[in-house]
Specification:
The complex is a heterodimer of chains A (112) and B (501). By secondary structure, chain A is mostly helical. Chain A is built from 3 helices and no strands. In chain A, helix 1 runs parallel beside helix 3 and helix 2 runs antiparallel to helix 3. The chains are: A mainly alpha (112), B mainly alpha (501). At the A-B interface, helix 1 and helix 3 of A face helix 8, helix 9, helix 10, helix 11 and helix 12 of B.
Chain lengths: 112, 501
């Protein structure tokens, strides 16, 4: 078998760290976006704290799920992917809304 | 009361229905396509109520196993509960597309008569299939029963004659969408929608042939179950959302279309090979552990990305909108999809832990919140948009008459589903622990887990929250029939006011 199952004693850690990966990634993304909107440095600190929590959760998750070999690429992908995804999406948000005139919102949209 | 009195009462009722139907068909606020859409929405709501009813019956049978035994068995209740859910989602999606098709293409629907015929054929077929589910689900399975009674595959049990009918109806729907756009204007939404409908009809075929090797059979069956839900439905909902956001929040077409393309890329990038998480334990090669595990882990990324855009829009545009109930349900969609599909999915998606959770109440917990959050919420949001237009594009902002009704329905439904999800999570945790890990998936382990106090208590709480959900569903039904009646104020215009900040 290519995978070693989670130990009985680690069940809760596996579930909890998995949930916390997604939740801390979302918190990191939310604080990062909010910091950009409000331009307040303390939200950046919050975002980095959330990202640090995300890294800890990835570490726990990888350990209890017995990640070795190529499974560690998954850990790396989660760490790198969640670090850059909010920045990438933010840039897309700014770019897609860039041509938006101040008062241009019309109900129903129009065919551009 | 005599038989004649019943007959007279039925005749009066029928005449009243016919009169109401005639009034509805003469509604000057709706186009032909929108009237057809309301037909779909009406059946969708009836099926939603059926889903709730049969879910309650199945839930009761966990608490009282002899309840309706050999009258309406658990397998039948569960089957109707899940099939009603799948079908009401589809009715909602098809109705939503018919609703905006003429607006989006700029021309009348090319084959409206075919669309109407397809609706009545589909509805008739659904009614017959439900009756067969309820009354003829015993005896040996053979080729005849496969064609006429039950195809035997979980979640898509409809007999083969009905399968063929479903494909025919979807093809009619596809023709209407493609031909209408071809006659009128094409747009980004039109292109994505048309291609997605090809996949929607095509993938269903994968669940319509039978092979004797159970691994191969399951392999193709998952094409329908997973790829429909985590690829084609997601994209279909993306198209519906894109059009809804233009109407509801006044978002520019260019913005929603760009994000629709991004969503399609992200969903297909992770969702298609995420299929592998269903191939862990059905006898497929071991490389599916890696493929399924890796791409399943990527599936929450679009949902996390959504958080950034939500913050951006709420911070910059402040959610100025023309329909408060619809927006509330769109927000419920964002949270429900994120929690149900993202968090609940990732918690047990890797094979290292899925070995213990697969097929336990964990799956039910994930399924309840994910389907509700990703699909039910969007359909309900669209129903409110439709009701607003049907009433003459009336005010649906703050200070609505009897506004307590939609708010209470939303709270009851969301809390009810969340409560059921948590209760099922506890039951699933206990099952994976005792039945799978400690007892090694034996029959003794199965019964030990089923009779454990944690499991029993979780099922009681599931029932409590199920009743809350049903109360919310009933209130929603009532509200959709009544909201906006007598309202004289016109709908808020999301134009200059929306960006005056």
């Amino acid at each position: 078998m290519l995978v070693e199952p989670v130990a009985l004693s680690d069940f809760f850690l596996s579930f909890f760290s998995a949930a916390m990966i997604i939740l801390s990634a979302a918190l990191y993304a939310a604080l990062y976006a909010w910091a950009k909107i409000k331009t307040r440095p303390r939200f950046y600190w919050g975002a980095w704290l959330a990202y640090a929590a995300l890294l800890v959760c990835i570490g726990i998750f990888s350990t209890v799920n017995h990640f070795t070999g190529y499974w560690l690429w998954l850990s790396l992908s989660l760490a790198v992917g969640y670090a850059f995804m909010p920045r990438f999406i933010w840039r897309l948000c700014v770019a897609t809304h860039a041509e938006e005139p101040e008062h241009s919102h019309q109900s129903g949209g129009r065919h551009d | 009361m005599t038989l004649q009195a019943y007959q007279e009462k039925a005749a009066v009722c029928w005449a009243d229905c016919k009169q109401r139907y005639a009034v509805f068909m003469a509604n000057p606020h709706l186009s032909g396509g929108q009237k057809l859409a309301v037909h779909y929405f009406t059946v969708a709501m009836v099926l939603f109520m059926a889903q709730l009813l049969f879910g309650l019956l199945a839930g009761l049978q966990f608490l009282f196993p002899s309840f309706l035994y050999e009258i309406l068995d658990f397998n039948v209740n569960r089957m109707v509960h899940i099939n009603a859910m799948v079908v009401w989602m589809l009715y909602g999606f098809i109705g939503s597309v018919y609703w905006f098709l003429e607006d989006e293409s700029g021309v009348e629907i090319v084959g409206l008569k075919w669309g109407r015929l397809a609706f009545w054929v589909l509805t008739g077929a659904v009614a017959i299939v439900v009756l067969v589910y309820l009354f003829i689900q015993f005896g040996a399975g053979n080729d005849t029963s496969l064609w006429l009674i039950n195809e035997g595959r979980e979640y898509i049990e409809a007999p083969r004659w009905a399968d063929i009918g479903i494909v025919a109806v979807v093809l009619t729907f596809f023709y209407n969408v493609a031909a209408t756009f071809a006659k009128g204007k094409w747009s980004g939404i039109a292109g994505v929608l048309t291609l997605d409908l090809v996949a929607l009809a095509g993938l269903y075929l994968a669940g319509m042939f039978y092979v004797t090797n159970i691994s191969v059979d399951q392999y193709w069956w998952w094409w329908v179950i997973h790829l429909w839900v985590e690829a084609t439905w997601e994209v279909l909902v993306g198209c519906i959302m894109a059009w809804s956001l233009m109407k509801l929040l006044g978002v520019r077409r260019q913005v929603v279309q760009t994000w629709l393309y991004i969503e399609v890329a992200l969903m297909f990038g992770s969702g298609i090979l995420g299929l592998g998480h269903h191939y862990f334990w059905i006898g497929t090669p071991e490389y599916w552990f890696t493929i399924g595990g890796f791409f399943s882990a990527l599936e929450p990324i679009p949902l996390v990305a959504m958080v950034v855009h939500s913050i951006y829009d709420s911070g910059v545009h402040r959610f100025k909108n023309s329909n408060h109930p619809a927006l509330a349900w769109v927000i419920a969609h964002a949270f429900g999809n994120f929690l149900g599909a993202g968090v609940w999915g990732f918690m047990h998606t890797l094979p290292q832990i899925n070995l213990y959770t697969h097929g336990t109440q964990w799956s039910a917990s994930h399924g309840h919140l994910a389907f509700f959050g990703a699909y039910a919420t969007i359909n309900i949001a669209f129903f409110y948009l439709a009701v607003q237009q049907a009433r003459g594009n009336v005010w649906m902002g703050g200070d609505l008459v009897n506004g307590w009704r939609w708010k209470t329905a939303a709270v009851l439904l969301n809390l009810g589903v969340l409560g059921m999800t948590v209760a099922l999570l506890i039951a699933g945790y206990e099952q994976s622990f005792i039945e799978r890990a400690v007892e090694g998936s034996t029959w003794a382990g199965y019964f030990a887990a089923q009779n454990h106090p944690w499991f029993m208590q979780a099922m009681v709480w599931r029932m409590v929250f199920g009743l809350m959900t049903a109360a919310g569903g009933g209130l929603l039904f009532w509200d959709l029939l009544e909201i906006g009646k007598g309202e004289q104020r016109p709908a808020a215009i999301i134009g200059d006011a929306a960006t005056a900040e």
